[in-house]
Structure prediction request, 294 residues.
Amino acid sequence: LYALNFPEVIPDSLVSSSAARLKEFLDELGGEMIVKPLDGCGGSGVFHLHRGDRNVNAILESITNNGHRPAMAQRYIPEIVDGDKRVIMIDGEVVPYCLARIPKAGESRGNLAAGARGEARPLSARDREIAEALGPLLAARGLLFVGLDVIGDWVTEVNVTSPTCFREIQDQTGFDVAGMYVEALQKIPLPVMPPVIADVPVSVDDSPRHGEQQPERQVGRGLFQYAHGVGDGNLARSASRDVNVVVADAGVGNGAQAFGRLQNLFGDARPNHHQSFHILAGRGQLVGLDGFVV
Prediction:
């Protein structure tokens, strides 16, 4: 559905759950169109319909679940024989090569999963025109990685959930698509989390090394200041909720080192030389303390 945001670059399209309305649209388009489910992938459920085909009614009833599920209909674009081109946008910038997915003989579906052949090509002038028009809009909406499907001069889909074809383009052209993506990721500023003061319930796991776990025992409470990735003794991530501090078996020396940073929490409790502190955050998620591996 995202392609409908750009009516100037898409073919005549209709989204409807009415088989009757879709059939009318088929007539409006001159008797030939593509119809597909909104939630499909890999060419699944894509039909090339012709007026007069005895299966038209059955196909439209099936794809709309008898009026209960909307489907997308689009004007058929004959240039599909030259390939359904995947044009990759990364943070508003276009990869200089596309992957033309050429349908196998007797097919109208340009999907690799449906047997199409992938051929990497330099972008055409029209491909670049489309990318330059849509790129800033996509980036402004926070879409870092987008796959445009271009057939002939038209965008048929804007894929924003799981675009593919990195590997095929990179293998055939040598262009480092993954590197371009990583560079874009590295430009995104990380959020700075303010320090949090938490009233932390503290417990000790007295289980022997590699043995059966025993019930944890409460040994104290205290205030512990922590922040996201800044300074010694800080948590791997911050949270505003209570956090259980657990003494866990993690090798010689680590327990004493961690204890020095959290001793205000434990009162008279002392870890032995086989123990280390780990943080158990809500819902069973383990978070490392100052570089210790959970």
Q: What stands out?
A: The longest strand covers residues 217-226. The helical segments are 19-28, 56-63, 125-140, 166-173, 177-186, 254-266.
